[in-house]
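Quick question: what would this complex look like in 3D?
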Amino acid sequence: MHKKGSFASNDIGTPWYDIGFHFWEPMNGTLLKAVWIEFMCMVLFIYLATGTVVFGCHSDDAGTKEGSDAIPVDCLLNQSRVLTIATGFGLTIFILVYLAAGFSGGHLNPAITLAFVLTKKISILRAIGYWIVQMGGAVTGSALVYATDNRGYEAAKGAANRLIDGLPSSAGWLLECILTFVLVLVVFAATDTARAQSTAHMTVLAPLTIGFVVFADHLAAVAIDGCSINPARSFGPAVIRNDYYDLWIFFAGPLSGGLIAALVYEVTLRPSSAPLLPVD
Amino acid sequence: MHKKGSFASNDIGTPWYDIGFHFWEPMNGTLLKAVWIEFMCMVLFIYLATGTVVFGCHSDDAGTKEGSDAIPVDCLLNQSRVLTIATGFGLTIFILVYLAAGFSGGHLNPAITLAFVLTKKISILRAIGYWIVQMGGAVTGSALVYATDNRGYEAAKGAANRLIDGLPSSAGWLLECILTFVLVLVVFAATDTARAQSTAHMTVLAPLTIGFVVFADHLAAVAIDGCSINPARSFGPAVIRNDYYDLWIFFAGPLSGGLIAALVYEVTLRPSSAPLLPVD
Amino acid sequence: MHKKGSFASNDIGTPWYDIGFHFWEPMNGTLLKAVWIEFMCMVLFIYLATGTVVFGCHSDDAGTKEGSDAIPVDCLLNQSRVLTIATGFGLTIFILVYLAAGFSGGHLNPAITLAFVLTKKISILRAIGYWIVQMGGAVTGSALVYATDNRGYEAAKGAANRLIDGLPSSAGWLLECILTFVLVLVVFAATDTARAQSTAHMTVLAPLTIGFVVFADHLAAVAIDGCSINPARSFGPAVIRNDYYDLWIFFAGPLSGGLIAALVYEVTLRPSSAPLLPVD
Amino acid sequence: MHKKGSFASNDIGTPWYDIGFHFWEPMNGTLLKAVWIEFMCMVLFIYLATGTVVFGCHSDDAGTKEGSDAIPVDCLLNQSRVLTIATGFGLTIFILVYLAAGFSGGHLNPAITLAFVLTKKISILRAIGYWIVQMGGAVTGSALVYATDNRGYEAAKGAANRLIDGLPSSAGWLLECILTFVLVLVVFAATDTARAQSTAHMTVLAPLTIGFVVFADHLAAVAIDGCSINPARSFGPAVIRNDYYDLWIFFAGPLSGGLIAALVYEVTLRPSSAPLLPVD
């Protein structure tokens, strides 16, 4: 059962094996408002975060030479900008989760929505609505980045995710899987009402922590695959550029990582779950 | 009606179409104190934030060569300093909103004041007072930066906002409009008392989140237009340098973005507003 | 006595000289769950944090030149990446302490576990369990980094800790000792229930502050020894690379610093401890 | 009257003109504990923060060339390291204020102590004790930095504050005065019990905000004077290097800025103070 407008929506008392699907909920104003903010925040996320990559692609010298407008041919995955890009993604997720949490839960990521629907935290109806607007929002956001600065968009390849040369697909999958695992695990802990009651910091710091997981993930991975951990984030630039190379990795990695995290949290960590071994 | 000294000042129960103007409030000590802190914090914001741009303009080698005082001819929009500059603007807004919130609401931005007066959260009298001191404070702050380091001020063009060469005005307007839209949307969510009651993190993290929106906006835009999202911030250096080129963009973009955000929040997101569709 | 699932676990009323060992606690599901999350978070810590060092080792030009996959021969201790690496370690500890605090206390560091067992905050049984999985988790995490990117792992020497050439061992010990002293002192203050009751910020900000101590420590020390402050963090890459040179420093420094901090906090700072001088 | 162990220690109801001195308090264990932690945290502040400057002074190439130990002749005020250094100072103050607030108030700065004693928030006896250990702690901390890495200490001139060539003393004073003004103003707001009751974020975010003021101040000023805003921070390296050139600026600037901020806050902003104009 989904509690509207609530950040934490865990069902205490459900046995650990009660993982499955919850199909329906009334299609009323609350759901429509949730889908609407999920769309709007997805547009803003892609605009701000991939915008940091694209708009920053103008040459380092562009500002210091009057009249210059040099842009490097390909500024994607530029190592020296890892920290700036990671900060952009992390802060953007923080502020948008802060904004959207009370309306939609602030997923902004199909992998998180998958983890929530699998553990019956949201209905399948809601999940499908979220997935559609997350994908549509990402395409819209990337189109707006292109509309703002098409030269930078070309140079940065739209901030598309791509494995660095020489990195095998399996390594890309492993990387995206582990990084998304951390994200979904923290999201589950942050929205666990049983934990929120016992530890004061959980609820207050929730959006900041979720944003900073995205920040830390990007610090690790921007240099070798641009860091996705979010199929929609990779889908947006891929559609605008009509280039779907490597895209499957950025669906398979995050979705599998999120799924494993949901199972691990529910089975081994949820406060109400059975202890690992029934000793004593 | 404005509740003095309160961070959140939303009227719950007002129907969504009740957007308009509230003209008057007693011109007492509370209002004067609010105008006074708005002025003082605006001076400090411009001094610290544009000071980060200007004082940092001394050559990278200035410190490593004894006696050197080389300054590049134009260090404005220097790409390599994006993160430092964005951090400076973001942190400064955070600390000043923390400081001023209880006295004036901590607007520090004519676009936010416009959004608040349009939705009847503050009176027109108060808005006019804020606008005057925001503009005056920005000019004062920029003058103090010049007084501290006139060589750096020349090199950085006073940290004035300017579109990078080749970027059309319409792109600049779109960019500033969207970035200010995010800012004002978050400010409205953070000061919405109805939401504050249901989600613990809203009030406590409010100033940090508002500062970090400014941070994220600057990460995206510093490299291509210096990032304004605040007409007063652009007005200060323009007056001191007596150069008003492109200035209209930094008024039109933020003001339109703030106005749209106010409408979107009040009509579609406010907890007390009617649901999007009256289903069920 | 350890209070399960509680972030703060100080015994008020114990006289200051009551430092020693507490041997036993029931080996039930709560303890097993704590050991399990300590293992999982240690794997994730090493993967994310040392991954930031390793995955970022691909050449600065790798992204700007189509098809290039140049990696510098040795990119360990690269000064220009100090801030990125320090941010990675700091944020990772913040999010994992946020996650693990309610289950295991979120030690993730043998030096912290030593300080807790010495002051009878946890049992020796628990400490031994934590130490084993901290070491095992660090080795596992470093192996996963190698599996993801073996070329970067070679270039960065697995992000192993190493004294910069010319720095004597005694200086390395002093550095690691002082930096770990700060960390453990802050952990003790953050988990002191007597203080938590009198100051509102203590509990809410606890995981953020602990993460930011790690951040600040790395800012200071990454450039000269890679910054350990955690024997397990140094142990993981050492085992995978089978290179134990200098490793003793990263055991001796952190463990002695943590031990001294525990004594200093319990004897001179704990609210319930006797005043420094029995005046008045 | 000082309330022991309390972060906020403002006297509500005192008329605004009641500025002066409060001479005495019992010299008991609480005061001794406060002086002790003020000393210890000052040592740690200087070690961590100026250590970030000094230990980072090893050449950018030191890590990438086996056996290299090149250090630039003078790496003080190196522009490219502004963000790293500012982060170091900001985070260190945050964590130490978090730690020390409940014991001593966490001044760690003679300018803050001056502002507190002038407004009768602490006794003259306590202020003198704090000033002595702040100065002594800074010297001790700087000596420990020298002991750890004397080569880096030479290269960075011990992270001493110094005006960049060409900057007049008056500009240095203006800069330090304004930056310290912001710091003390925020400290007064953060410790104002009357405000803490009306706005939830004030108390919880207090140490973070104070740390981030120091962060923002350093972002602005590191490149042109190394940023002091703290006479003790400048005093430590000056004593160890036996070089007192420019030191008077780093006493005059911060002390005057702190003093003005105390007056401005007490006279114009304190909630209990008379309104600016007695209208209505």
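Answer marked as accepted. Residues 1-13, 60-69 of chain C have pLDDT under 50 and may be disordered.
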